């Protein structure tokens, strides 16, 4: 299905919110379609209306005017309680109930729905597993958990009744960068398994680039400056506000969106271990380098240089040096560039999951990959 024919799971049409007594609207006139199964990130400066927008979707805040549809149904035509069963909500700053155990927190919505006890127990066990927690934390209180664990409980709670739509408000702002990266990876994995329509609010443009299918970049007053895929946003920011928000290193950020399998590899200056030094010499000359890679069947053993080839009959007898850490086809070009910079040969070696040699990337291939994407 192409994007244009794909049904929007969430549709905002000329939505406006003016809080009582406010001089300016929190959200002036926002129209936005979130395709079913997509993860859309709302990004923008503090106070631009991200949380307000999220809360209008599940009616924690009522819009002043405009329409909001979830799966084709206007949200005000449903009782708010019905609506919220279909929409999981991860609150800004986690927001677990402090006086309820982890188990009771996760079971909040199923209890409201009056599921029977066994079903709730089963579901809680499933969720704990799904978000990577240990059952031993179930009787604890939120204050007895780390930030990352609390965050996972927040996600488990939001997923409890298996809602098709998930709203997440800065879910990772309370944890350190390492835990955050880990939780982001888990969200990507989770989204692969239980594809939901997700609207995720974040301040962090790198987080949005990593997680989102599309990014809605907002300005004060809920003004939608640009709505595009991360790659399009980085490639063609529509105005200065967007360019400023994306910050410097737009090219480097794009590198993290492209993986090695999307780029053409080269065989590189490589010879078999039975090649003669003269053969190696001609390969080095052809490639304009002073080293040569040595392979044995589908393995790349290492590399050697001119001086080391002086007294051997076959290349395989020369002392070989290892290439720096090889990358897999799933690696990003950013990781690949990092491997390349660390290498003495100025190439990144690509191998498959069984360590079979697939080819090399040079700086030229990396630039070409960025140009073409
Ligand atoms: N209940 C409220 N009453 C009055 N004004 C409000 C209320 N909630 C939010 N606002 C105002 O509406 C604007 C948008 O707020 P909102 O919380 O949506 O911003 P945000 O983009 O989520 O910001 P942050 O990134 O800091 O969380 C702000 O100017 C805020 O002060
Ligand atoms: Mg907010």
How does this structure look, described?
By secondary structure, the chain is an alpha/beta fold. The chain folds into 2 domains: 8-86 and 163-257, Rossmann fold; 261-372, Roll (CBS-domain), CATH 3.10.580.10. 34% of the residues lie in helices and 23% in strands. The protein has 14 helices and 15 strands. Strands 6-7-8-3-9-10 form a 6-stranded mixed beta sheet, sandwiched between helices. It has a 4-stranded antiparallel beta sheet with strand order 2-1-4-5, covered by helices on one side. A hairpin with a 5-residue loop joins strand 14 and strand 15 (357-361). The radius of gyration is 26 Å and the shape is elongated. Mean pLDDT is 90; it is low at 1-5. The chain binds adenosine-5'-triphosphate (ATP) and magnesium ion. Magnesium ion (MG) is lined by residues 50-51, 92, 169.
Features:
4-stranded antiparallel beta sheet, 2 domains, disordered N terminus, 6-stranded mixed beta sheet, Rossmann fold, binds adenosine-5'-triphosphate, CBS-domain, binds magnesium ion, 34% helix, alpha/beta, 373 residues
* SS class: alpha/beta
Helix content: 25-40%
Uncertain ranges: 1-5
User: By CATH's scheme, which homologous superfamily of the largest domain applies?
Assistant: P-loop containing nucleotide triphosphate hydrolases
Radius of gyration: 26 Å
Shape: elongated
CATH topology of the largest domain: Rossmann fold
User: Average pLDDT across residues?
Assistant: 90
End-to-end Cα distance, whole Å, is 21 Å
- Could you give a short account of the major beta sheet? 6 strands, mixed
């Amino acid at each position: 299905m192409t994007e244009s024919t794909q049904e929007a799971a969430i549709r905002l049409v000329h939505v406006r919110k003016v809080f009582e007594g406010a001089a300016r609207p929190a959200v002036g006139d926002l129209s936005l379609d979130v395709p079913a199964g997509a993860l859309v990130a709302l990004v923008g400066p503090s106070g631009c209306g991200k949380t307000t927008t999220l809360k209008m979707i599940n009616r924690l805040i009522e819009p002043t005017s405009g329409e909001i549809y979830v799966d084709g149904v206007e949200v005000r035509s449903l009782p708010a309680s019905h609506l919220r069963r279909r929409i999981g909500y991860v609150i800004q700053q986690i927001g677990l109930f402090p006086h309820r155990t982890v188990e009771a927190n996760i079971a909040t919505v199923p209890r409201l729905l009056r599921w029977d006890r066994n079903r709730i127990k089963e579901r809680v066990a499933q969720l704990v597993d799904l978000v990577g927690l240990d059952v031993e934390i179930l009787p604890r209180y939120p204050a007895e958990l780390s930030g990352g664990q609390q965050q996972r409980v927040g996600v488990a709670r939001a997923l409890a009744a298996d809602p098709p739509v998930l709203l997440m408000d800065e879910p990772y702002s309370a944890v350190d960068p390492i835990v955050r990266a880990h939780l982001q990876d888990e969200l990507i994995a989770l989204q692969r398994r239980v594809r939901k329509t997700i609207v995720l609010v974040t301040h962090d443009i790198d987080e949005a680039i990593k997680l989102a299918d599309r990014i809605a970049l907002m300005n004060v007053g809920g003004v939608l400056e640009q709505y595009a895929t991360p790659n399009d946003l980085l490639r063609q920011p529509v105005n200065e506000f967007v360019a400023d928000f994306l910050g410097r290193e737009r090219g480097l950020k794009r590198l993290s969106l492209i993986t090695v399998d999307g780029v053409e590899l080269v065989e590189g200056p490589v010879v078999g271990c039975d090649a003669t030094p003269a053969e190696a010499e001609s390969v080095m000359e052809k490639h304009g380098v002073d080293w040569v890679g040595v392979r044995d069947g589908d393995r790349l053993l290492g590399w050697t240089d001119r001086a080391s080839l002086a007294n051997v009959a076959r290349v395989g007898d020369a002392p070989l040096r290892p290439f720096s850490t090889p990358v897999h086809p799933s690696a990003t070009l950013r990781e690949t560039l990092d491997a390349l910079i660390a290498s003495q040969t100025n190439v990144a070696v690509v191998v498959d999951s069984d360590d079979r040699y697939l080819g090399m990337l040079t700086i030229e291939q990396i630039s070409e990959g960025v140009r073409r994407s």
